[in-house]
Amino acid sequence: MLENPKRYTITAALPYTNGPIHIGHLAGVYVPSDIYARYLRLQGKDVAFICGSDEHGVAISMKAKKEGITPQQVIDKYDGIIRKSFEDFGISFDNYSRTSAEIHHKTASEFFRKLYDNGDFIEETTEQLYDAKADQFLADRFVTGTCPKCDNPEAYGDQCEKCGSTLNATDLINPKSTITGETPILKSTKHWFLPLNRYESFLKEWVLEGHKNDWKPNVYGQVKSWVDGGLEPRAVTRDLDWGIDVPVEGAEGKKLYVWFDAPIGYISSTKEWAAREGKDWEPYWKDADTKLVHFIGKDNIVFHCIIFPAMLKAEGSYILPDNVPANEFLNLEGNKLSTSKNWAVWLHEYLQDFPEKQDALRYALTANAPETKDNDFTWKDFQARNNNELAAIFGNFINRVVVLTNKYYNGIVPVPNEFSEVDEQTLAELKAYPAVISSSIERYRFREALGELMNVARLGNKYLADEEPWKMVKENPARVQTQMYVALQIASALAVLSEPFLPFTAKKLSNILKIDALGWNDVTTKTDLLPAGHQIGQAEILFAQIEDAEIQKQLDKLEATKTANKVENAKAEPQKDIITFEDFAKVDLRIGTIIEAEKMPKANKLLVLKVDTGIDVRTIVSGIAEHFTPEEVIGKRVTVLVNLAPRALRGVESEGMLLLTNNAEGKLVFVNPDAEGVINGAMIS
């Protein structure tokens, strides 16, 4: 670990511009990185917090093909949505760029060219998967097949999202083209490879020995597994029509592999920022006194801890990351977040339903952050954390302090009198909290740090509850002056210490208390954060209660998504064997009406029905009791197979069969093509 760095370069994973941002992105990467950057700024550190849209690669091409638009239209649309989401949630990037920008194309091309000129690449003609029908080579994401490591039948050509393994498209078993559905063939093509095997000893020394004690176990373990398994050359070019041209002769029609060009986006974004601010960009990437930290999700560990460092090492003039605190994944209501299945909470939609509640979501995601294992976001937990923690602990304390100060002193901070032992102990404990919270943040334990912040609010609540100034104000007003002074110092500390975690709340609280320009260390070093005689404002609600109806609306939305996915993914059963017209002519189908219905005794699935078939009234026993009550079916018009041989069921002779099918949710419905959820190809039985 770098002690006392002169400056910090903080990068957050570049989001793909093939869709909006959801809570998994926020929890895994952007809230933790923003907490870290805001905390460092409050300490007066020199910080460059860098990000940008990742606008190349197959994901963009796939989205464009699916929507029938150009890749440029795709990236322009989602870059705008993503930028606004980050702004709305207070993600305080110093620069947010785009990999389609000219400065990035130039930076990535120059980086490639330097490695090429130094002889760091291997040029090879290899066999790659080719879709003959589409007449094109298939980039990784245009191929799906069975993962050779976990047998997942829907693995992509670059990664299995089930087991997390990084793959090559040619590794897949039974590969299929996602463009045409055809089985691809192997065809020769020339590419350039970065020989990762040359960097094994460097990676062992730098990561496995150098960062054994300070990198997160999940990151260290994944790197160790890769290095121990033996590294192989990895292609840094692709046969694509969208991306950065490979800047060498004989590379026509080829682009830089997105995982070569994307991390260089951190460098080009820093250049863009430095040019705008009149700074020199190089110290932020090339000075040994700079601390470089990459914030990513666990699916990007290999690229940020093996491939990009190997690229930087090959180039020779760049520093390496001091840490890569990758998080695990966040699930939603027990299921994996999925952009393609719309199983997500999209940030732009969240603010439509919960306006001005950015901090409630930031809080819930940090309190439940997937720092060491996959965690689950539930709407009930979100509601409980807002109501029982933010509102009941933090908001309650601030409200009491501000209301009582206005009630007793017209909003003027009172002059304290002699401090009791409790007062001195409380103020001493308050002064210790910045160091406690700092320790957690600097070890990338943001969930732990947030818990300590809430302990500051708990300290304030306990102090007021124990001291009870509202009971003492008439008999000992001098003592109450001291009590309220102490409580106001705690409130002021919360305005500072909450800023990295709850920036909108911190700003609102600072406005209420009418304070500004306080730094992190002032909470420890200043004797009075709010001096006597200072005028504060009126109380405002910091955290409104979230009602059950609001949460139910979100649960209903997810349930509708689940149903829609079932309908979309429902597949018709294969056609049965061919029959002749004579076979079909034997079947006698009639329209009937159910006139009586009752449950079969001691049988959970059976209803005993009386059905008027138009030719008679007959008894039919049907296995529909788990889907319908007797009352629901009386009066129903139904299709009846009347010439089915009678059959005794639990002593009752059944003379026919009702025709039903299943909807997308698996519920039985009487045969009716217009019934909700009945798909084309639904089998009648």
The oligomeric state of the chains shown is single chain
- Rough outline: flat
Main-sheet strand order equals 19-18-17-20-23
Radius of gyration: 32 Å
Which secondary-structure class do the elements indicate? alpha+beta
Helix content class: 40-55%
Ranges where pLDDT stays below 50 over 5 or more residues in a row are none
**Beta-strand residue fraction:** 15-25%
Q: How many beta-strand elements?
A: 25
Mean pLDDT: 92
Give the terminus-to-terminus CA distance.
68 Å
SS field, number of helical segments: 21
Biggest β-sheet description: 5 strands, antiparallel
Catalytic activity: tRNA(Met) + L-methionine + ATP = L-methionyl-tRNA(Met) + AMP + diphosphate
GO molecular function, one term: methionine-tRNA ligase activity
Binding site for ATP: 339
EC number: 6.1.1.10
Polypeptide structure, described:
The chain is α+β, with helices and mostly antiparallel strands and 685 residues long. The chain is built from 21 helices and 25 strands. The model has no long low-confidence stretch (mean pLDDT 92). ATP binds at residue 339. Zn(2+) binds at residues 147, 150, 160, 163. A motif ('KMSKS' region) lies at residues 336-340. It catalyses: tRNA(Met) + L-methionine + ATP = L-methionyl-tRNA(Met) + AMP + diphosphate.
